[in-house]
Amino acid sequence: MKVHAAALVLTLCASAMAFSPSSLSSSSVVVVPTTSSTRWSSTRLAMSTLDRPMSSSTPPARVSPDAGHVPDWEGRRNPTSPDEFMNSDPTSPNVGETMWECPLTRWDAEGINVREAQDMARDVPHCPLEIRASFEDNALGAEYFVRNRERLRDDLVKHGAIWFRGFDLMKTVRGNRLMHESLGLQPCLDPLHSSGLRKFASERDALYEEVNKPSLRQHYIGLHNESTAKRTAAYAAFVCFQRATEGGGRFLVADGAAILAELDPAVLERLYDRRVRISVSNLDIPPALPSLIKEGIRSLVDVAVAPKFDMDLEMMYEMDGKPGRLQAVETAESPINRHPVTGLPVWFNNAHNHARKLRDRRPCGVPEVGMTEVFYADTMDPLDLEDCLEIKRASEKHITALSMEPGDVLLVDNYRALHGRDVFQGDRFHAVTWFTWDRNEEWRGDERRIVEKNAFNKAINKMMDWLPKDFVSDQS
Ligand SMILES: [Fe+2]
Questions:
Q1: Span from the CA of 236 to the centroid of ligand 1 (angstroms)
Q2: 420 CA from centroid of ligand 1 (Å)
Q3: How far is the CA of 54 from the centre of ligand 1 (A)?
Q4: Which residues form the signal peptide (predicted)?
Q5: Which of 276, 280, 378, 475 is most buried, with most CB under 10 Å away?
Q6: How far is ligand 1, taken at its centre, from the CA of residue 31, in Å?
């Protein structure tokens, strides 16, 4: 009997963490404004609904947040079937088996003067840089990226992201891999690989699926760096093989430097001084259970489940005020970090994605077990509404909502730029490869993937695939 109880707890925890947000960290009605006037009117609508206090009788309206900039849609043809883009080169080496581990997060956040940091972060080159393929560029194929490697790598760090548009090369898995190999990038595991939240699209090509699952297409993924307090990918290449067949699904990118410069200095100073902690999962235990048993459950999760996630987690009861709730909480972190290469201070924090007061007011397809929260680290109080609103305002002002088309790639400097994605309808196939440090090998470490540790990843993915389509239907 004891064994069964333990197994149940473990299963619940695994399920809970399987929905962990960072995963949805690491993408209703879709708001795809076509004019600036509709864009701003929907912003006002979103803000007015946010001003209302939460109560059980008047749930907040679920509105997909806006973006400061929405580029034109071009209408490239979607491939007719996955066979067209899932084309891997069987003669190329299987890099999936020998990938680097995701490197440890490089924190450099001590002694930052917030106002000076904001001055430094102002007026940096725009993110993303947009590059459209010419006829000649496309004729070069992978050679384009070989010839322009140094310039493109410099531009990546200078702008924080590069949006490659209209390149024929990256319309297939094979060509996409040639692109990043030509740029000299070295693939690594996802920061949450061990959690099972990441599924390979093509393992031998180090290519993960983005959050395309039908069960999560009505879930808005807020801005985040692909990062936990412990591990952070250096760079990423997000590729579109098939845009959403029935609309939506724009990819979101925003400059962490621009957000830092934009934020109200008083809010920023408060967050920097108090630091933040993020809870990534909830496990609701009957509150009436004796405290001895509740402690036993906490210890069991702490010892048996949490280590599977390769994060530094602390199991804490009732931090968000819900009786009996056990939360897995990351260590304290600064919301500002200096960029490892440039030293530029940037907003390096996932609160826009994880803060409960924001998630509750927009399309969110995550069950309660996977809902996240952001706390002030000094008191463990959830971020208050005013701070959440300021993070939302500053973040969304600097979002560019990309209408990615088949073959488009967004190359991202993951310490500088944040990303997310809007809700969508129909089927969508985007994928991503993460990269470690290739020019600063001492930051990369020497850990390679241990394939035997993959069982948990596969088990959780299988469970996620069983979820019914659109299992959350309460979006307005
Ligand atoms: Fe992500």
A1: 9
A2: 6
A3: 28
A4: 1-18
A5: 280
A6: 21
Distance CA 104, CA 233 (A): 8
Host H or E run for residue 392: helix 385-397
Number of domains in the chain: 1
Q: Which amino acid is at 24?
A: L
How far, in Å, is the centroid of ligand 1 from the Cα of 222? Answer: 9
The letter for the amino acid at 23 is S
Q: Do the strands 325-330 and 313-317 form a parallel or antiparallel pair, or are they unpaired?
A: antiparallel
Per-residue pLDDT in tens (0 to 9) along the chain, 476 residues: 333 333 333 333 443 333 333 344 433 222 223 233 333 333 333 334 444 444 456 777 788 888 988 888 778 888 878 888 998 999 999 999 889 999 999 999 999 999 999 999 998 999 999 999 999 999 999 999 999 999 999 999 999 999 999 999 999 999 999 999 999 999 999 988 877 667 899 999 999 999 888 888 999 999 999 999 999 999 999 999 999 999 999 999 999 999 999 999 999 999 999 999 999 988 888 888 888 988 888 888 888 777 777 788 899 999 999 998 999 999 999 999 999 999 999 999 999 999 999 999 999 878 888 899 999 999 999 999 999 999 999 999 999 999 999 999 999 999 999 999 999 999 999 999 999 999 999 999 888 887 655 655 555 555 444 443 333 322 22
Task: Tell me the whole-structure pTM to 2 decimals.
Answer: 0.84
* 224 CA → ligand 1 middle, Å: 6
Exposure letters 418-435 (e unless 16+ CB within 10 A, then b): bbbbbbbbebbbbbbbbb
Evaluate whether residue 36 is within a structural domain. yes
For residue 209, report the distance from its CA to the centre of ligand 1, in Å: 11
Give the domain CATH number at 320. Answer: 3.60.130.10
Q: How far is the CA of 25 from the centre of ligand 1 (A)?
A: 4
Say how many Å lie between the CA of residue 295 and the centre of ligand 1: 33
Whether the Cβ atoms of residue 118 and residue 269 lie closer than 8 Å to each other: no
Q: Is residue 474 part of a domain?
A: no
Name, in order, each residue with C-beta under 8 angstroms of 219's C-beta and a sequence gap of 6 or more: 24, 27, 211, 363, 364, 365, 366, 423, 472
Output the CA 351–ligand 1 centroid distance in Å. Answer: 13
Q: How far is the CA of 329 from the centre of ligand 1 (A)?
A: 19
- The Cα 309–Cα 317 span in angstroms is 19
Q: Is residue 472 part of a domain?
A: no
User: Ligand 1 centre from 68 Cα, in Å?
Assistant: 20
The CA 288 to ligand 1 mean position distance, Å, reads 38
475 is a domain residue: no
Q: How many A from CA of 256 to the centre of ligand 1?
A: 15
CA–centroid distance, residue 231 to ligand 1 (Å): 13
Domain limits at 311? 2-466
